[in-house]
Amino acid sequence: MPGYYQHHGKQAVLILDAGGSEAAKTLAEQKKLAGAGQTLLSIDAFQTGAAVAPRDRSGDHFLAFNLSDDANRVQDVLTALRFLAQEGCSSVDIYADAKSAWWAEFAVAVAPKDVTLRLHTPTGSLVDSEAAYLEDFNVPGILRAGGLRTADRLIKARNGTAER
Known about the structure:
Rossmann fold
């Protein structure tokens, strides 16, 4: 997975941008954090930035047999968090733009509890409505599984290791 990484210690920052890691580099927050001596990671999640590639979705019932782009992006965030944990990071601040806030929210909800996670997303970026899911987070069955309310409850159940 393409991205940007600089290792500086046990405090890490994961920056997510729907435009990929190059778009994340332009964020003022990343520029500030890059100079703060923290480990910094930004990724090109599935089908973003340099990771955009042709994907044939023409088959009947494509999403019945394949993960959606957004589901794959959540997995990429989980992979990035696991990488940071393996690199010795004990806490990760996750900064996400409005679109990637969805990936971050659901990744933090199911992430292992071995690393302290703090989620920083734009206020009001996540709306628990069917229209928002169809437009911003197309993961079949996510509403049946509880949607944002369940994700929020899972984050709170991390016993204070994830803050919102």
